[in-house]
Design goal:
Blueprint: H1 21-26, H2 30-50, H3 55-72, H4 85-105, H5 109-124, H6 138-153, H7 158-169, H8 174-181, H9 185-202
Helix pairs in contact: 2-3, 2-4, 2-6, 3-4, 4-5, 6-9, 7-8, 7-9, 8-9
């Protein structure tokens, strides 16, 4: 292999870059399922808080959300470019938050029935909440991406990762990065694309 070629990205540990996190989770792989929860629980919790779920109830709603995800993961399909696991997860979380507030409506008024009604109305009509921030929450999405990148980094050779990092994270040109790591600009772009595709698969946002 010459320095102009993009490194072959076979997983050093014997894993497979062709299998996405969701694919493994569908096979009931405990480690994959743990990664799904670890990646997405903070984001789902932030949605719940924005929708008005009390802090002491967030963990209960999270459990309901991920129980539903586990039971229905096989139904998630990316059939259109706009289909994302995050969007599918948001729909489930919104439904579980609605269920939570419906249950509160049956509680005594002193517990907050009026408040529960208001939150139900807001969740039922997302326009009342303004922009759907749950899909563009910078803080939690940054954390989600950081964890996902940590999960897949070991699947790539160092130069491939350096090429991706230099172009995507540092915002440098492929030519500048190529000069630093002894690759051609074309090889840098290929490396970047490989990592980005793997990242999208890890997040459930690319065909498997």
């Amino acid at each position: 292999m010459t320095t102009e070629e993009c490194p072959d990205d076979r997983v050093p540990s014997g894993g497979s870059t062709s299998r996405s996190l969701l694919f493994e989770a569908r096979l009931a792989d405990p480690a994959a399922w743990e990664r799904v929860v670890r990646l997405y629980a903070p984001l789902v919790a932030s949605w719940c808080r924005r929708w008005g779920v009390a802090e002491q109830d967030v963990s209960d709603v999270l459990q309901e959300v991920f129980s539903a995800v586990s039971a229905n993961l096989g139904r998630f399909r990316k059939e259109r470019p706009t289909d994302t696991f995050r969007g599918w997860l948001s729909t489930i979380a919104r439904n579980k938050a609605r269920d939570h507030f419906r249950r509160r409506l049956d509680e005594p008024a002193a517990v907050g029935g009026t408040e529960a009604t208001l939150h139900l109305q807001q969740i039922a009509d997302p326009s009342l909440l303004g922009e759907p921030q749950e899909l563009t929450d910078d803080v939690f999405l940054d954390e989600l991406l950081r964890k996902a990148l940590e999960s897949i980094q070991g699947e790539f050779h160092e130069r491939t990762w350096q090429a991706f990092w230099g172009v995507v994270v540092e915002g440098r040109t492929a030519t500048d990065v190529a000069a630093d790591i002894d690759m051609t600009p074309g090889a840098v772009r290929v490396a970047k694309s490989r990592v980005l595709l793997r990242l999208r698969r890890e997040l459930g946002d690319a065909p498997e």
